[in-house]
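Hi R.,

As promised, here are both runs. First protein below:
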Amino acid sequence: MRIRSLFIGLLLIRQAVGQDYLWPTDAGKVLTSSFAESRENRFHAGIDVKTWGRSGYKVFAIRSGYLSRIQVSPFGYGRVLYQTLDTGETAVYAHLSGFAPAIQEAVERKQEALGRYSITLFPAQDQFPLQKGDLIGYTGESGVGYPHLHFELRDKASRPINPFTRGYVVSDRVAPIVQKISVTPLSADSRVQGDLRPWLVQPRQVSPGRYQVEQPIRVRGMIAFGLDAYDQMEGGPNEFGTYRNRLWIGDQELFSAKYDRFRYDDNPQANLDRDYRLLAKGKGFFYKLFRDHGNELDFYQTSELYGGVAAFDEPVPMTGWFYAILEKLGLDWRRPAGVVNLPMGSHPFRIEAEDYWGNQSIVTGELLAERNSPAKTEGTASASDDSLKVNMQVEYYDDYCRLEFTFSNEPQGGVLLEGRSSPLTRQCIRLERKGPNCYLAGWPLNQGQPSPLELQLRRADDSSSRPLAVKRLYHHTVAAGSAQTVESEDGRCRIEFTSSSLFKPLFVRISVSEASGRPRYDMVSPVYVVEPEDVALADKITLAIRTNATDTSRRGVGLYLKARSKNEWNFIGRELDQGQSLVFGSAARLGSFVLIRDLQPPAILSMSPAPGAQVTDRTPLLTALFKDEVAGMGSEEQLQLLLDGRKVIAEYDPEDEALRYQVKRALSPGRHEFECRVSDRCGNRSRKSANFWVK
C-alpha cells in the first residue's frame, strides 16, 4: 500500500510538471514510436503521435516562445516547424500537411521567390511570436512515413531529449514483451554452448512480465548478453523501444541503460547500442547489454569499455621480460576495464526490461561456467596422413575467426592448429571436437598478423611431422583511425576508408562473382562482394569500380549496392574520375557492388486532370505519377510541372513517386495545358503534356 501511494505521488508530480508543457495535438495520446528507437544508422529523436491514418489534426505550440526555423522538403521531416521555447529548449513538429495561415503565406512567398518547393526560413524572433496553445499547423504525412505527428524536444545544447522527462503522461499499463536473449562469445578462446557463435534462446513466459531460460547456458571466457524486446501501450498494436534495460549476474549489477538523451553526432553509434551483426543477419533487434568499442553514448551507467561483459576463465598472467617489452611497445593485450571476472561454476542471471511508466519484465536463468577439456577422437582405424582430406569453413567475427574443419576420416590423437598471432610469435591451438570427423577452433585476429595468414594443421603427438594440411586466410587489415585504400585482386574495385570510417579494426575480404540479376539490370562489371557486411561503420566509405576498357560510352553507368533482403540494387553514385575509368559512390555499409547501365527514361504513368478532361473546379489539383525502374528519380530540380507553359511550385512525393500542385488562383474557362518533365539519376529524361478544359 505504501509503495502504491508513493507511485501515485510521483505520478501526480509528473502531471503537475507536465501542465507547463501542452500536448502538441488534438489527435490523442496514442503513440506509434517512442524516443531513441533504432532506425537505419540513427536513433529516433522524438515520439510519433498516432493520427489514425488521416491528416488534418491541429498542432499547437506547447509553450510560449517563437518560431526560429521553418523547413519544407520532399524528404525527411517534410513540412516542419522549430519553436524556441521560453525555457531555451527547442520543440520540433514534423510531417505536417500545412501551416497556420500567416506561416503558410510566408512559406509560399519564399517558394515563389526562389522558384522551388524546398526551402528553409530562419524568421526573426519577433516575426512569429507564439503563446502556449496557439495553432501552428496540421498533422500530415509530408516527407517520409505514414500520417502521424513527429514531436521532438531538444535541450539548450540542441540534444534530443525524451519528451516524457518533461512531464507528459500517457496511459500505459503494458509491460515489455521479451522475444529472445543472446549470449555472445567475445574472443577466440570464449565459448557459449561449446561454440563461438552467438547463442539465441527464447525464454519461456511463466507469468505476466516473468520469463525463464529453462536450461543452464554453458559458457567459457568472455561473454556478453543481448536482449530482443519491445514495449506496447494501450490503444494500439505498435511496438516501441524499451526505456531501461539492466543485467545482473548473481547479486552484481553489470549493466544498466536508460534512454533519456543523446547527441546528433552520436547517431552512427546506434549500431553499437544494438547488435548490428544479428540485425544484418536477420536475427532480430537486440539491445547490447554491454558497452562495445567506439560506443561513447550517455545512456549507460558505466563509462568503461566492455562494461557489462563477464569473463569466466583463468587468464594467463602477462609476466616476464617478453610481456614487459610488449607493454613498453604498446602491443600487449589486456582485458578492457569494464570486464568483470567471475569464478567457474554456476551463476544465476537476471535481465530487466522496463518502459518509462515502470512496467517491467524480468528474464532469469543460469550460466554454467566450464573449463576447457581436451578433445577426444572416436574410432580406431586411422587414415594415413597422405590420404586425409580436410575442408575448412571460415566465419569472421570482430577480432577472431571461427574455423570449422571436416576431415575425410577421424584423425587419431589430437590435432593442433599453428600459425602466427603476431610478427614476433607463433601460436598453437588444440582443435575441439564438434562431431564425427568435425572439429572447431577460434583464431585471434590482430593488426600485426601477416596476410594471407597461413595456418597449419598438425598431429598433436608429433609436432616434427609435416602438416596434415595448410590453410590460408585472405583479408586486408584496416586500422581504425587511419585512412586506407583496399583493392580487389584484379585491381578493378577500390574501397577508400577515411580516418573516421571505423569503430574498430576491420578485416576486409573482397570476392568477385559473375554479374547476374533480373532482366531489367544491364550489369557492365563483375559483382564485387566486400565483407564483412555484418560490422557497423562509423562513417561512410567511398567505393569505385573500373569500367570496361572497351566500353567507349559510359552514358547511364552508375554504381549500385545490393539490398539486404531482396534481389534489388540501389543506386549510390555515378561520379567519374579524371581519366573517366572509375565510377565512384559512397555507402554506409559494406556489401555487394556492381556497375549497371541505365538508358531507360522514367515512365510517366498518368496525369490528372486526364488528357481531354473537362473540369468544373477552377482550382484543380494537378497530379503526375511516374516510375523509374533502375536508378531512381533525380533531384527536385529535375522534376517539374508546368501549367500553361509556366513552371509551378509542385510538391514531390518520393514514396508515391508523384508531383502535385494545388492551383491557388482560379483558372479562366477554356483550354489549359498541363506538362510533366522528369529525369532520373542517370540523366534519362521524359516529358508528357495534356490539355484539359475548365468549364
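And here is the second one, sequence first, then its C-alpha cells:
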Amino acid sequence: MIRLGTILPGLAALRGYRPTLLAGDVAAGLSVAAVSVPMALAYAAMVGLPPETALSAAIVGLAAYALFGPSPRLVVGPDTALCAVLADVLARLAVTEPAGRAETAAALALGTGAVLLAAGAFGFGRAAVLLARPVLVGFVAGVGLTLIGSQLGRLVGLDVPGSGLVGPVFALLGRLSDVRLPTLVLGLASLLAMLAWSRLVPRIPAAPVVLALALGLAAVLDLPGLGVAVLGPVPPAVPMLALPRADVPAEPFGEGVVALAVIAFASGVIPARAFNARAGLLSDPNAELRGLGLANLAAGLTGGFAVTGTSSRTAVAFTLGARSPLAALTASLALGLAATRLGPLLAPLPVAVLAAILIATGAGLIDPRAFRRLWEIDRREFWIALITALGVVAVDALKTVGLGVLLSLANYLRMASRPRDARLGRIPGRPGLWKLHLHPEAKPIPRILVWQFQGSPVFVAADRLGERLPRAIAKAEPGTRFLVLDCSAMTVLDSTGAEVLERAVAAAEAAGLRVVLGGGHARFRNRLKRSPALAALPWFDSAEAAVEAIERGEIAPLAREAAKTEG
C-alpha cells in the first residue's frame, strides 16, 4: 500500500499541524514572497525571458515542491546557478525570438523534471556524494563571477558583449566613453545600498528594500527622460496549463536538459541538507530528486522555466520562523496575488537596479573563507575549487563540474592508494601498543614485529602494502620470530588485496617469521576466510591480544626456526 507521505510528503507533514506554528509560517511565507518578486524579475532579465515567466516559475515551483518535496523548509524557485546554465543553454540553441525563447525554456524545464524523476526512481541520489566540497565551493564562486560579468552592461546602461567575467570587463573598458552617467550613478548607488544593507541589517533581505527605494525614486523623477532604461509593462503572471513546444535540434536540447538537471539537483541538495541538519532532520537525496523533478514538471507545464532549491530564500524562511510546507504555500499564494496586481507598479523599475541586485547576489556567492579553509586543510582541494571556479567562468558549467568531480575522485584515490603504516611497540609502565615513530620512549617487543597498515588492502592500496611490509621486515630487530599484522584499520578485502596479502605472508614465512593476525572488521574477516592460505593464519581480536598469546607460548614459531634455536 502506497503511503501519503511517499506521494505527497508536504501534505503528510501538515497532518497534526500545531496552530502555534501558524504565525511563524505565515510571516516567513510573506517575507519569501517579498524577496522573490525582485529576484524573479532580475533572473528573467538575466536569462532574457519575459518577467512573467520567472514569476510563474517561482509561484508554481514553491507550491509544487511544498506538496511533493521531502524538506519542509526548502524554498524552491529560480536560482542563480540554474539561471546561468539556462542562459548558456538558450544561447547555444540560438533561440532569439521572445515567444520561442519562452517556449524553449518551458520545454527545458519539462525535460529537466523528467530527468530528475527518472534519476530518483533509479536511486541516483547517492551520486550527491560525488559533489565534494571543493567542487561545490568552486562552482558557486564561478557562478557568482559569471553573474557579475553578465550584469556589468545593464549596470551602466550599455549592451556589453562577451561571456564569463573577463570578456565583459574588457568590452566595458573599451566603451567607457559611452557609459550613461545617470544609469551608472543609479546602478552603483543601488549596488552600494544592497551591500551596505546586507552587512548592517543581515536579518532583513536587502532586495525588497532597494526595490521599494528605486520605485519611489522612479515616481519622483522622469528616469526614461534621463536615459535610464526601465523594465516596462509586466503582464499579469497567471500560470496556465499548456504543453510547450521547442523547435530546436535534439542533441543540444538533450545536453541542455542534462546540464540543467545536474545543476538543479546539485543546487537543491545543498540547502536541503544544510537546513535539515540545522533542524535535526535527515535528507533523502532520492526523495529530493523526485520533489525537484515534480516542481520542474509543474513549472514547465505552466509557462515557467527550471527551478531548484534556493539558499538565500530558504535562509529567509528559516530565520523568520518557517517550520512546515505551509510557509512555502503562503509564499506561493502571496506571490501569485502580487504577480497579478503589481504589473503596472513594476513598469518604471530601472533595469540597472535589477542588475545591482544580481551583482550583489553574485558577490555573495564568492566565499573567500571557504577557499582559505580549503587551503589550510588540503591545498590540493583548494586548487580543485579554484580550477572549478575558473572553468565555470571561462569554459562551461556542466563540463567544469564533471572535471571537478574527476579531480576530486583522483585526489581521493591518491590518498586512498597511499595509506600510512607503522611499527608498534610498548611504552614501559603504560598499557597498549604505540607507534615507534611517534613515541621515542616506545620500544620494540622482543622476538615480535608488530606492523600496522592503516587502510584496507583493496586494489588501490594493495601495492602499497606489498611495498611497505618487506621494508618493515628488513628493519626488524635481530632475533625476530613473529610478525603480528595489526588489521584494526582494515574494513574490506578484494581479490587484488587477497593476492598481495598471500604473497606478503609467503615472503614473511620465507624470512622465518610466523604470521599472526590481530583485529579487523567483520566484513574484512569474512572475505579473508575465503582464501585458504590466509584463513589458516592464527587470528586474535586485537594485535595486543596476539602479542600476549605469543608471549604466553600459545603460538609457536615456525618449525625450522624452532629447530635452529634448539640447535
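A quick note on the second one: Residues 21-130+150-156+180-231+241-363 form one domain. Let me know what you think.

Best,
J.
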